[in-house]
Design brief:
The chain is of the alpha/beta class and 155 residues long. The chain is built from six helices and four strands; from the N terminus they run E-H-E-H-H-E-H-H-E-H. Strand 1, helix 1 and strand 2 (32-38) form a beta-alpha-beta unit. Bound molecules: 4-nitrophenyl phosphate.
Length: 155
């Protein structure tokens, strides 16, 4: 059974699809499964935002086949690790936790880089292209550390 990790944002079209693609590119596929979901349900079944697809592509990562999913309480049973992009995602996900023990699976992704500082990955949806580049760079740095940790622990 692979170790399962889910990246969560609000829409599941900008930040978490990038986070999924970047982390998946750094982990061996036979041992890890990386997915993503949104706490909002507007974009179920949709492709990621074209700006996220283009940003990933610049770095050789194809996220165009991803399909939007809605984060539900079932994800707590299915996944071993739940990484959220910002504090509002954190609150929304924690509110769905079936038990206090399950809440321990939930972490802000930038905790990897800035432990204890509660730093958000900003939502780039209403902004310009450079917002997507900034999100990519933050996620790339955070997932470097995260991938090393996961491989050390599980692979
Ligand atoms: P994301 O960005 O949470 O990074 O996918 C958003 C995308 C769409 C919406 C909100 C945030 N929306 O309201 O449709």
């Amino acid at each position: 059974m692979p170790i399962k990790i889910v990246m969560v944002c609000l829409g599941n079209i900008c930040r978490s699809p990038l986070a999924e693609g970047i982390l998946a590119s750094k982990l061996p596929k036979d041992k890890f499964l990386v997915d993503s979901a949104g706490t909002g349900s507007w974009h179920i079944g949709k492709q990621p935002d074209h700006r996220s697809i283009a940003t990933a592509k610049k770095h050789g990562i194809d996220i165009s086949n991803q399909k939007g999913k809605h984060f539900t309480s079932d994800f707590f049973d299915e996944f071993d690790y739940i990484y959220v992009m910002d504090g509002s995602n954190y609150d929304n996900v924690i509110a769905l936790a079936p038990s206090d023990q399950q809440k321990e699976k939930v972490k802000l992704i930038l905790e990897e880089l800035f432990p204890g500082d509660n730093v958000d990955v900003p939502d780039p949806y209403y902004g310009l292209q450079n917002g997507f580049d900034m999100v990519y760079d933050m996620l790339d740095e955070a997932t470097d550390l995260l991938a090393k940790k996961l491989i050390a622990k599980h692979a």
